[in-house]
Amino acid sequence: SGLLSRLQTSAPTVQTLASSKSFSQNIPSCLWKLGRLNHVAIAVPDLEKAQSLYKDVLGAQVSETVALPEHGVYTVFVELGNTKLELLHPLGEKSPIASFLQKNKTGGMHHICIEVDDIKAAMTELKKKKIRILSEEPKIGAHGKPVIFLHPKDCHGVLVELEQA
Question: Which residue numbers delimit the VOC domain (predicted)?
Fold first, then answer.
């Protein structure tokens, strides 16, 4: 009984999340709100092959290809019900997707896109919090809405796109 009583008295107290104060109370209030996941973007070396996989093999609804010269990409959206996949393929020599595919020959996840209710307020607050934004001003994204990208080194290795909801 000596060892058991020493273990019981010396064991640290662990407080579970359920018994602690509400987790959301620790999150400071913002002038803007993070919304739903809009899409996950996947860089693909062969756009037609990728479209065929999602449409013909998996049976998803797949959009037409759209060129976005300002972003240096061709995009195709795959509807999933609760969100979308964005298939990205390089458009032009200076495409960020071309350099991504040079490092990742078979393609792969490029970024996630999350909606925000006020992109300008988000930019102001994120800059104050030392989160780097990859452009000075929002650009118009694939859905015709303002978007910004956050530096992956400030977001645990993930390129994050914020889109005005």
Answer: 36-165
